[in-house]
Amino acid sequence: MALVLIDARRRILEANPAAESLLKMSRRALAGRPMSEVIYHDSPIFELIDRADRQSGDIMAPGTPIAGPGMHNGIICDIRIRSADDGTFVLALAETPSRESSDSVAGAAGFGRILGHEVKNPLAGIIGAAQLLERQGQADQSELLDIIKDEARRIERLVNRLSAFELFSAPRMQAFNIHALLDKIIAAERAAIGANVSFNREFDPSLPDVIGDADHLQQAFQNIVRNAAEAAIDNGSHGSVTIRTSYAAGLSMKQARRGAGLRKAMMVSIEDDGQGISRERQATIFDVFQSSKSGARGLGLSIVSEVVAAHGGQIRVDSEPGATRFTVLLPLGDGVDHG
């Protein structure tokens, strides 16, 4: 594991032998040198360091490309960054064992730039057209136009982050109201699905704000809700989707980010009355490239699993004909609840 200690000015203070090997520079040459002279300044690692400076807890970004004068075509690393009270940062970098070739790194960078350019331009046009219609349209159209603008801006933010190689496994944590987010999803899905699905809300108003990445969690919950809605009408008739929130007894932290024990948790469940998912499919439903049109469970569930795990949470699915429930547990607060 390569370890690098840097100060608040992003200058290297110390590096271990593994870092010398990874960065292709000796400790003597690295000491006192700005990070931007070792790793190219447009690398995502600098954004990750900035985020570590703004928020508590470790910042993790697996499969992140880095390149520098001594690394030629670049490498893929799993990165973990921890900030200290004295303003320094410890960077832990492990070269990904199954890293892609240098051509793949360059190709990913090129894809990110193309994605950022080619998608953001039409999004700007969509937002502009919605604003124009809002000025000229009727009052009963305002809710739909707000959905168009909000969704376009959210996609724009996600594209910006993807083009900077920011993964779903590296969330930007801040407090937000989970019910406001779920209401946005319900409004968007009602507009997309139509009147064939009834969306039922059973929210616990006493829940506090959740600490998480609102864009990432919206993407995750919207994937689940969309799949549930499609499953509910898969047999061609009217269906229903019920979204519930509540406190959970406790979230086991054995595989989460902040140590063992139980923490207070929020539960969000999405249930549909569709045909259900077979037991065999349930075992692989969160794997990449697992999809089933008849079950209406698509590729997005691998993203859902990644987002929930990055938030220190858990997800499970329970299904039988007429009742499929996805349950997401998200930790609340920083304390550990041993009761």
TrEMBL record:
Keywords assigned by UniProt, alphabetized: Phosphoprotein
Annotated InterPro entries: HATPase_C_sf (IPR036890), HATPase_dom (IPR003594), His_kinase_dom (IPR005467), HisK_dim/P_dom (IPR003661), HisK_dim/P_sf (IPR036097), PAS (IPR000014), PAS-like_dom_sf (IPR035965), PAS_fold (IPR013767)
Catalytic activity: ATP + protein L-histidine = ADP + protein N-phospho-L-histidine
Matching Pfam families: HATPase_c, HisKA, PAS
Gene Ontology annotations of biological process type: regulation of DNA-templated transcription
GO molecular function, one term: phosphorelay sensor kinase activity
Histidine kinase domain sequence ranges: 114-334
Major enzyme class: transferase
UniProt EC number: 2.7.13.3
Protein name: histidine kinase
